[in-house]
Amino acid sequence: MALSTSKFLLFVTPRAQHGKNKVVCFPATVYLDPERGPYELLRSSPETERVQNKLKSNTSSSVLMTEMLFDKRDSEKPKTRGGCEAMAEWQDTVFPSCNVVHEFDLPNRVKMREENVGGKILGIGGKRIAWKVSTNNALEKELVVLKTIRWDHEYKEGLLEYKRRDAIATERVTFSPHVMNIYGHCSGAVFNEIGEIGADEFFVGKDLTPIEMLRYSRDAAVAIADVHSVGVGNRTILIHGDVRPWNYIMTNGGKNIRLHDFDQAHFLRWKPSTGAVCPFHNYACNRNRAPEECTRGSDQNEKIDVYALGNIMFYIIAQMKPYKNLKTTQEENYEMVRKAVIPPLPGKWSNSSDPAIVVLKKAMKRCYRLNPEERPSARDIANRLIKAYKKLNKDR
C-alpha cells in the first residue's frame, strides 16, 4: 500500500475519554507532507505535542486518515484469493472523493465539546460512530451523516477494508430509491444521506394495519432485490450480508423504509478457468442470521440475505426479534436458526386470516427454507409482494 505523494489532511482525535453517559473528544487538524511529516497544527488540543510525536513515529492508533490511496499499480492487478478472482473491476478498487471530505471544517461542524456530544452523535455501532453534520454548498442536502471509525479501534487494514466495501457497495446501488445514498468517502470517513429513525425503533409500538405491513415488507424486499441486481450477466455478485432491522432506516416521515450500512457486504468472486462462482464462509451466528451463517465452514451466497428478509417481515409484523417471544436461551436460539425453525408469530397474527398477513406468512415461509438453493430470489419475493399489494390495496 502506498500513499499519495501530495499533501493531504488528517482529522485527528488524539484523546477520547469514556465516562458515565458521556464522551469527550479533542479534535485537531493537521497538514501532512510525506517528505516533511506532520506540521502546521491548525487547531490545538490538550495533547498537541504528544500527538505530533506519535504521528512522526507513525505509532498513533487514533488517527482518521482522510486520504489513503492504494498504489495505482496494485489496483490494476487482478487480485486472486484461493484461485478466485473478482468478477468485476470495481470489486477490487476504491474511488475516494477526498476533496469533498476536505471541504468540511470537521472540528467546527462536528461540535464535540462535551455539552454538544449528545445532540450530534446519532449512534455508536460496533465499528463506527455516526455523526449528524451540516453541509456546505458542495452537497445538496442540508444535513448528512458522517460515519467515522470508533476512536477506540485500531486503524488496521482489515478495518479499512470494511469501509472500502461499504463505500463501493453503496455507490453501486445509488440507482435504487430503496437504498440510502452516499455523497462522499475517504478512507474511514463516509458521508451518507441522513434518515429519520432506524426501523428497529420505528416499528416497535406502531399500530400498523396489515396492508401497511405488506407495503413496508414490499419495499424492504425491493431494496434487497435491487442490491442483488448488481451483477455480471444474470449472476448476482453483490450481497448486503447484514440484513437486520437496524440496517434499515425510515425517511419521508416514516413512509419509506430504506436499506443502508454495507460494511458487511460480500463481493462474489469466480474461477475464470471453470466459470464457477466461489462461495464464501462467514460464521456470524445470531438470531437474525441464516442457518449457514450459524454452521462453521458452510458455503454461503446471496441467499443469506433472502433468509434475513424473512426476519425483516417477522419484525415488521411481530415488532420483535425472532424467537423473542419463546424466552429461550441464546444457544437454543442459535440451534433453531441452524435448523431453520420458523419463528412463531404472536397469536393475533399467527391465526390471522387477513389476506395481507396470509401473503406475508407465505413469503416468510419461502425465505425460511433450510436449503439455500430452495429459497427464492429476493426479486421473486419482491415481485410477489408488489403484485399482492396492488391487488389488495385496490380492493380496499
Task: Give the topology, please.
Blueprint: E1 8-12, E2 16-19, E3 22-25, E4 28-33, E5 37-39, H1 48-57, E6 63-65, H2 72-76, E7 80-81, E8 84-86, H3 98-102, H4 106-109, H5 114-120, E9 121-124, E10 128-134, E11 143-149, H6 157-172, E12 182-186, E13 189-193, E14 197-198, H7 199-202, H8 210-228, E15 231-232, E16 235-236, E17 238-239, E18 248-251, E19 256-259, E20 266-267, E21 269-271, E22 276-278, H9 303-318, H10 330-338, H11 347-350, H12 355-367, H13 378-395
Helix pairs in contact: 8-9, 8-12, 8-13, 9-12, 12-13
What does the average pLDDT come to? 78
Shape: globular
Content-based structural category: alpha+beta
Euclidean distance between termini CA atoms: 60 Å
Physical arrangement of strands within the biggest beta sheet? 9-10-11-13-12
Largest sheet: 5 strands, antiparallel
Task: Bin the helical content.
Answer: 25-40%
Output the radius of gyration: 23 Å
According to DSSP, the number of beta strands is 22
Which percent range describes the beta-strand content?
15-25%
The number of helical runs is 13
Low-confidence residue ranges: 1-78, 112-119, 137-141
3D architecture notes:
The chain is an alpha+beta fold and 396 residues long. It is built from 13 helices and 22 strands. A hairpin with a 2-residue loop joins strand 7 and strand 8. Helix 8 (210-228) packs antiparallel against helix 9 (303-318) and helix 9 runs antiparallel to helix 12. The termini are far apart. The model is unreliable at 1-78, 112-119 and 137-141 (pLDDT under 50).
